[in-house]
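User: Fold both of these, please.

Assistant: Here is the first one.
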Amino acid sequence: MTEARTTLTFLHTGNPTGLKFFVEHGDSRCLFDFGREHAPGRALFSLGLRPRLGRELADLVAAGEAPAVEGVYAGEPWDGRTSVFISHMHLDHTALVRHLAPEAPLYYPAEMEPVRAGADSSGYLPWRRPVGTALADRETVTAGEIKVRLLAVDHDVPGSTGFLVSTPEAAIAFTGDCRRHGLHPELTAAFAQAVKGADLLIQEGVSLGYLPPIPAPPLLTEEEVIAELALAAAETKGLLVANCYGMNRERVAGLAAGCAAAGRKLLLEAEMAALAGWPGVLGDLEAVRADPRGHCLQLGFDSLPLLLDLQPPAGSVWIQCGGPPFGSFDPGSTVLEAWCARFGLELRTVNSSGHSRPGDIVRTVREVGPRVVLPVHTRAPEALVVVGVRSFLPQAGVTYRVADILSGAPTGSAPRGTHGRSGRSSPGSR
């Protein structure tokens, strides 16, 4: 009888988004996150192109935007061994959850539930039925010989978590998406202490290798962003439009407080209001047209044509503060600029990333002190260099023995339960 071994398979390394991976030991398999890559203009289904009605999953798999794995999707037999864990609600971590087999155990942080329920009820992100199990922070789930413990981190959406995954062979920590410049840096610091000494650390690295535009915008904390939005609410002479993301409930609450202090009524589009849990929903535009100085609107990219009806007066401002388009890499940015220019809107960007800055990534790795760190969720994993900690750069679609990664001599193989995908050996270490 072959001895059970712990293996690690990345279905997508998150370059730069869409991270998802398996940890397996014996007959048990745990899947962490199940979203789609956000790549406007690069992904086949982007810029308004959608999978065909009634063929959504098949189209996504055929286009490479959903993994070709067996035993996890609705419409085919569940494999009886895969449990699914979600770190937070962002679409690059959850967009495929609707396609999960109803029998597969599904777990997510309890603090995430209000955003999940709002996304589901509004149609923004329909969720699987049954919805799964909401777990408290620091709660542990046992799946065969694998134990998974939730450990809260600070991100720009409520209820974000990292994980400590324990098997008979190894302790594997996964940061999830996290930061130390948000409103709750103590959560991320506590995560690092709780997983201290883990064998492997799967570390998010969105900011690694990032080259800011010239001139570079200031690096703001979440607190500073909220203060800037409040200042804009007070000083803008005309209509204030804030393109924020409803899942960032703390930012919406901060914007609302600033608007209230400035005598503005904050109104959000219906889906964003549901995500934010905000009662003010944008409806009839006449009140806004009559009193633009008394209002602040959340409008997304798709709502730019509303400017034709609003006819914002001189002194109006559009602030990009978390909603798409996300930057110059997004083709929508030039379109947004054109609309703002056409209507004389001053276009500003006031934002704070939900992801750790490079120095804080290094700090987390040092505090955890793993035997090996795996930088993922980044275009530049090779940019993570921490003295005294060996890095391993995994490839998607390859199954690695964790013991081999730890020994420094990993080889890869095709994972079990794939639809015709071939693996290949990869040294990966440096």
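And the second sequence with its predicted structure:
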Amino acid sequence: MHDSDPEAIERRIQYFIVGIGIAIAIGAAAGWGIRAAEGAAAGAAVCWLNFIWLGRGATELIRLGTAQAGADVVRVPRTIHAKFFGRIVLLILAVYAILAWLHLPPVAFLCGLTTVLPAIVAELGYEIARGQHRWNAP
């Protein structure tokens, strides 16, 4: 597997989500206490889980589209729709449980939940530093 393969990029983004989530949780603990750290860590965990589920769903959808290439009518099974909507329902339930039952600070949770954004920026920095950015690829 080459560093610029999509699987390698997704794996590195997952690692960046975990690493940045830990850093956010440590910063929240230092600045606002353990409850804020728990909220940030919970948000980062939900972000990581969402990224994995979304990646698997997109991979399955791409595989399905490739298999039906050239067909006059493309058929998307109901299971694909159920997986995408099921992911959203499970994430909403997880967010509700974390905020309503555990009473973690919403701002800290939201900071953890958006960990994917700095993870993507870190991945772009990694690609530029390694000289493997896609816009220069042959």
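Helices lie at 6-32, 34-67, 78-101, 106-113, 116-130.
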